[in-house]
Amino acid sequence: MNETELMLTSILGCRRVDLYADWKPLDEFQRLHLDRMKSERQNGRPLQYVMGWTEFMGLKLCVDERVLIPRFETELLVESVLKTAEKISRQPLEILDIGSGSGNIAIALAVFLEKCQVTSVDISEEALDLARENAKISQVSHEINFIRSDIFNAFKTPNETNKFDIIVSNPPYISSQRIPHLPIEVQFEPVLALDGGVRGLFFYEQIFAQAQLFLKPDGYLFLEIGDDQRKDLEDLLKKYSCFDIIEFKKDLNERDRILILCQTRF
Ligand SMILES: C[S@@+](CC[C@H](N)C(=O)[O-])C[C@H]1O[C@@H](n2cnc3c(N)ncnc32)[C@H](O)[C@@H]1O
């Protein structure tokens, strides 16, 4: 669909085919709505924010400036988790998602895994509000516990009740210096969702340092990574003998985008 078709299907609540099969001229309110959407696009506001929704793994999610717009790479991250989850016999699977955003990862896992309990944390209360709304729309509110937390901080001391089979995260991983130079559309997204510190590695360091405390034996860690971060992450991981690298997964452009780790077996 082109942008105008997408805007029209959004305004009219119809399918693309209906635009042509059953076209009726827009009323004044609809025309004003379309004009406003077009002018927001001209100012660089991302189409997904203008429409107020996007699709992630076939699920419809509401999005606005409180949250990052889910990306295609993150579908690869979720698909990797789903594939590994099939091989784990424990049920329900207990999963921790760090950095809820729109709730995309937690919601997709809750929808596509037969039995799981997902804890999803974000430091942004605004993002959590929207993520909870999205979980309601996808009818998985009972499977997800959204909690405000600075990474693992809400959990305090790890114990048997807060250990997970899988930890998954698409953390902020853009270096702080690059943020002002990002394309105009990306500048509309929350800095909190983008800024990964001086070298973009801040969240990986924090997660590597603490994840083993919150993983069950044989637990897995799945991370989305920037396409130029493989070497830095391999270097960083030399400090953490508690993890074995299972795989760096590439996207369709052959760039390393997903890192899969598991607890080292001694
Ligand atoms: C790259 S976005 C990912 C959002 C969503 N999961 C996705 O895949 O589109 C990173 C998320 O981490 C959250 N975040 C930033 N700092 C955090 C922190 N210290 N603790 C927990 N979450 C944090 C941001 O608010 C943002 O929602």
CATH architecture of the largest domain: 3-Layer(aba) Sandwich
The multimeric state of the shown protein is single chain
Give, in spatial order, the strands making up the sheet with the most strands.
Answer: 5-4-3-6-7-9-8
* CATH level-4 homologous superfamily of the largest domain: Vaccinia Virus protein VP39
Give the total of beta strands. Answer: 9
Distance between the termini: 53 Å
- Work out the radius of gyration: 20 Å
Low-confidence stretches: none
The tally of helices reads 11
**Total domains:** 2
What ligands can be seen in this structure? S-adenosylmethionine
Globally, the shape reads globular
Query: Which sheet architecture does the biggest sheet show?
Result: 7 strands, mixed
Output the CATH class name of the largest domain: Alpha Beta
Quickly give the structural class. Answer: alpha/beta
- Fill in the CATH topology of the largest domain: Rossmann fold
Structure characterization notes:
The protein is α/β, with parallel strands linked by helices and 266 residues long. The protein folds into two domains: 41 residues, no CATH class; 211 residues, Vaccinia Virus protein VP39 (Rossmann fold, 3-Layer(aba) Sandwich), CATH 3.40.50. It has eleven helices and nine strands. The strands form two sheets. Strands 5-4-3-6-7-9-8 form a seven-stranded mixed β-sheet, sandwiched between helices. A two-stranded antiparallel ribbon has the order 1-2. Helix 6 links the parallel strand 3 and strand 4. The longest helix is centred in the N-terminal third of the chain and has 15 residues. The model has no long low-confidence stretch (mean pLDDT 95). It binds S-adenosylmethionine. S-adenosylmethionine (SAM) binds next to helix 6, strand 4 and helix 9.
